[in-house]
Amino acid sequence: MCGIAGIITNNARNYQNEIQRMTDAIAYRGPDSAHHEFYDNAALGHRRLSIIDLSENGIQPMFSSTKNECIVLNGEIYGYSEIKDQYSDYPYRGSSDTEVILAMYQKKGKNLIHDLPGMFAFAIWDEEKQELFCARDRFGEKPFYYAIGKNGEFIFASEIKAILASGLIKPEIDTAQIAYYLKNGYIHPHKTIYKNIFNLKPAHTLVLKNGKAEVKPYWTIPTETSTLSLDESIEKFKHLLDIAIKKQLVADVPVGSFLSGGLDSSTIVAVASKYKENIKTLVYGYESGDLNEMPYAQAIADKYKTDHHILLDKKQKISETLQEVYSYMDEPLMDSSLLPTHLIFKEASKDLKVILSGDVGDELFGGYTFYKYNIDLSQKGFYPEYLSKMILLAGKFRDVGSERRVRAQYKDTIDYHQNKVRNYFSVAEIRNLGITDEIPGQDFSFNPTNEDYNDLMRIDLEKYVPANMLLKGDRTSMYNSVEVRIPFLDIDFAEFCIQMPWQYKVNSTEDKIILRKAYSQAWTEEIAKRGKNGFGASVTEWFKEPELQSLSKELLENKNSYIFKYLDFNEVQKKLNKHHQHWSLLILALWFQNNKNHLQ
User: Fold this and answer.
1) Are 28 and 146 in a shared domain?
2) Which segments are annotated as binding site?
3) Which of 65, 108, 212, 502 could in theory staple to 112 by disulfide, Cβ–Cβ 3.0 to 4.6 A?
4) Is 297 inside a domain boundary?
5) What is the pTM for the complete model shown?
6) What are the binding positions for ATP in this chain (predicted)?
């Protein structure tokens, strides 16, 4: 796990200061070492967090055996030793997973991407072809940003701040992305908050040749439905997850696992314990209240005899944590779990470099309550347009019931999922705040339908997961110099889950059906009965903190605050309700405050 940077331009050897500034800006992504390599037309930089092959043979940028190719990689190639055996004629110098990609490139060229597993963002400079080949993993676990500099330079990096540190670009705010953020709570998964800095889409490659960049997909989310029976699916589910977790336990440094006591993390620990005794587990604990997961986590830790560590909430001031997090976040993200996620990685970094996470189980196994509710709405039926108008009109004068109102407001399951679930500001509210740009839509790799409820999960895998969940995990873990691995996103396991009939995952009353059937014996009885429990605290509670109130007043009740270059001051005052809209605006205002120097 690392940070990468590069500049492709004529006379690239003259860009040593720029590359140095870029890698310095993301030094926390790789505190173990920093290196740079230069060709006439390519400058490459790398910050290393040593996980596999801790020797100097693993240093990047890494040259191929012919010195014709040079790679910078951020990520991990799971099962790399088996791939290495397939390319055994390559003269390997070390045992790193990075070198395997160079071996594959020499044999297969850009087609290597179809056979490459794992989480990754990389760039290969081919000196002979004078060509840059870049790629990002299928789900977007690892980031890749790029831009065109003031003199036509092609600039890329793991984070936006590295591109800005080059000094070669003046960023321009994209107000349409402010609107997208207000509606969804995050920036569009295929965009950035800047018009002139670009986000390479997950499952896409970029080839730069003769100053022209070609971006195209190499994988699309599966839309077929498996014909396996439920019993057959359970067996394959367990088999593939076993393989995935076993591969992700491979490292030359200690590997631990988060353990919240929920279904997903408990499953990962149960399987991991088959291959690694006394694995270190970590829970972020609240001393009291509904968010106290410590007893559930302890029960699993006892069952599997893990080396269990409780990271007790130290009641660090919310305002203090928030400002620490936004010292490194390049874009606004209103997800309140960002703060405890940062704190648990901060604590975990004292003992571990690699941690397994149970993220994305909800999107693969149907774990959210709104999936069940959406199925229930659909089975009851949404109203035709003429009837919807009548119900909504009647609702102005009397109570028509919340469920009936929802079935009238939205035309179908996709409409409800896209425009109600996790939406924080309506289009009308965004217009009142002063943003008139059209809110960008989503270009999915498939055509969502209302008949297959798997499509609700596919939408989340292409929208919410990369733009919110994976971004949150990458930034908080890497700022604390920790690598987070997500076994559920192993490509073989994930593809299998995506293609399972939705009835094996969720219905109007049950969630995570296949996970419960496959692993209920691996949990305690209390955990098996648990429902979904979010990670984080109530922002309403947070706003009781005097210091946070003071920060809010400074940023949202001061007309000179930078946010009011884009939003209407009087309309913002109406939203300071100490709830989600207030929190969203505070995050945006804090982000503007911390980044205004780039924008002036």
Assistant:
1) yes
2) 97, 357-358
3) 108
4) yes
5) 0.94
6) 357-358
